[in-house]
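Q: I have 307 residues here and want to know how they pack in 3D. Can you give me a structure?
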Amino acid sequence: MSKAKPVNQMTIGQFETMFPDEDACCAYLVAHRWPEGVACPRCGNADVHPVSTMPWHWQCYQCAPGSGYRFSHLVGTVFENTNKPLRDWYRVIHMMLTSKKGVSALQVHRVMGTGSYRTAWYMCHRIRAGMQDQEFCKLVGIVEVDETFIGGKAGNRHKNKRGKGDDNEGGRGGIGSGKTPVAGAVSRKGNVCARVVEGVGADALTAFVRECVSNKVSLLCTDQWTGYRHIKSEYPHKVIHHSKGEYVVGAIHTNTIEGFWSILKRGMVGTFHKVSKKYLPLYVAEFQFRYNHREDGDIFGAAIRGC
């Protein structure tokens, strides 16, 4: 009998034990934000002085010699300028990380009792912004690249809500009309990089590949879409022809990135139902973060460091 795969997620019991009160949450944030000791967020000075009358506040006299610059553990984080306790923010982060297909702001509002839906919506978007990968490294090894489309078809919209040219079911095989294109690249058994792109033409996809994929990859796999025709001169490029019934030819396939698309789309359809193009990059960043930290035993800590 095969051994069960360990679950790299914090359980509710572990959450309650780690964060019994607000002070425990503050201490956790300080430890993950400044692992080598508290430093001034303005000038980086490590010689700061605690404010005795205000817990979790420090004073820096290097960047403000006269009066001193006073800062708290929340300055420069997504938790800044909020009247919600840090423990509530942690609960929302925990809900988002333990839901494979995401959790809607309406569900957060129902569970947390945030007072209004807009408060829950605001908290979720701030956390998603913190999940955007600021230290991205280009993908290496065997990399798969593909694109997908998020959103409803133009034909299903009311006429006064269709954009110019939406009546013409163009795009890649007609499936992209009225939808937002998202390009993705994934390293086999590694990380994924997904971005909302303006189109699926050769220029847009070539720029995406150059941004996300190292030119030292051993193999770059795509399907037969003509948008990838320019990358063969820069990468060891192989094509899988889905139109000919090909799906796996040796090491050549795009099944890994299509697996990521399936998770993303199930979240969009089953959890969020409708996502505007304006905020789609934040949702993509959330799914990318969960995928890239799926083997991380401290995924919650990684999220806090990003926030």
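Q: Anything worth noting?
A: The longest helix spans residues 255-272. The CA atoms of residues 171 and 177 lie 6 Å apart.
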